[in-house]
Amino acid sequence: MEIAAFMPSAAAPGKASALVALGMVLLAAWGSANAASTVSVLDAGGKRASSASYVMDGSLGSFVGSAGANSPRVVARHGYAGQLYDVQSLALSASPTNVNETSTSQLAAQAILDDSTLLSLSATSVAWTVVSGLISSISANGLATTTNVYQDTGGAVRADYQSRFATLPLTIRNVGNDDFGAYARDGIDDAWQVRYFGLSNPNASPLADADRDGMDNYHEYIADTSPTNALSWFHIQTASNGGSFKVFFQSSTNRKYTLYGRTNLTSGVWTNIPSQTDIPGSGGVDSLTDPSSKGAQRYYRIGVRVP
Ligand SMILES: [Ca+2]
Ligand SMILES: [Ca+2]
Ligand SMILES: [Ca+2]
């Protein structure tokens, strides 16, 4: 913002007084090579100058006054011991607005006054409430505390001051994947449990086999198969030996697969095939191939890993 300095015309004092006595005085525009002002009007009392761009109160023998610009609307006051105002609305802020789960954010409120100036409010003078989201509390001094979430989650807080209120959205960031409510610390990604079982369902526990397909929830999670569809469970669908062994399975794009083999079904060490290790799934029926298996008797299994 720029506030132009006001310079009365260079008339002699006696002449200026005579002009003021006539009422409104039109002052000529002033300018230089670096600055210019629109035409200013001086009121009858000789204390206020205004133009299309600004208003400026002068004073005679005291220290109070105000100056302002029209666009953007800003008013500054100087020298007043206090002022009367009306609160038109509230402006809220938070630091940070993207707050981690089980962390805090400091809320703040400003009153927007009838002359468009801002008045910072102490947080304790404002009544804070939670509108929505996993915000466990807001202290009297405006410190909001978030709870665990299973994914990035929106929330909102509200501030009431006098007869005005405002709301502010916050984002609660998911930091840990296994810390949400009844699903915390059970080895399964909470978002996966909520996706299949809702927010708090005993059927989501790792040892439960909700769809009774013989594979419990923990292993369905590792394989990224559906724990609520008995036709969905991880297994080798087919195998072929067209010169070398190839095994087929339904894959997930969120998992990686490794082919293990050995020559005896009941004994020996399962050894991974180096070229068939940690292969990303395509989401369709994939296959892994043992290139060294030609003519040999071999047994296979597939390992699944959560990246
Ligand atoms: Ca979490
Ligand atoms: Ca969990
Ligand atoms: Ca299943």
> How far do the termini sit from each other?
54 Å
Instruction: Quickly count the helices.
Output: 3
User: How much helical structure, as a percent, in the residues?
Assistant: under 10%
**Overall tally of domains:** 4
Structure description:
The structure is a single chain. By secondary structure, the chain is mainly β. The chain folds into four domains: 13-78, no CATH class; 87-173, Immunoglobulin-like (Sandwich), CATH 2.60.40; 181-223, no CATH class; 236-305. The chain is built from three helices and 22 strands. β12 and β13 (143-146) form a beta hairpin. Mean pLDDT is 83; it is low at 1-30. Bound molecules: calcium ion (CA) (3 copies). One calcium ion is lined by residues 178, 183, 186, 188, 190, 193. Residues 101, 148-150, 174, 176, 179-180 line the site of one calcium ion.
List the topology elements.
Elements: H1 13-21, E1 25-27, E2 40-42, E3 48-50, E4 54-57, E5 65-69, E6 74-78, E7 87-95, E8 98-100, E9 104-113, E10 118-121, E11 127-132, E12 135-138, E13 143-146, E14 153-161, E15 164-173, H2 190-197, H3 217-223, E16 236-241, E17 245-250, E18 256-262, E19 271-272, E20 279-280, E21 285-290, E22 299-305
Parallel strand pairs: 8-15
Antiparallel strand pairs: 1-2, 2-3, 3-4, 4-5, 5-6, 7-9, 9-10, 9-13, 11-14, 12-13, 14-15, 16-17, 17-21, 18-19, 18-20, 18-22
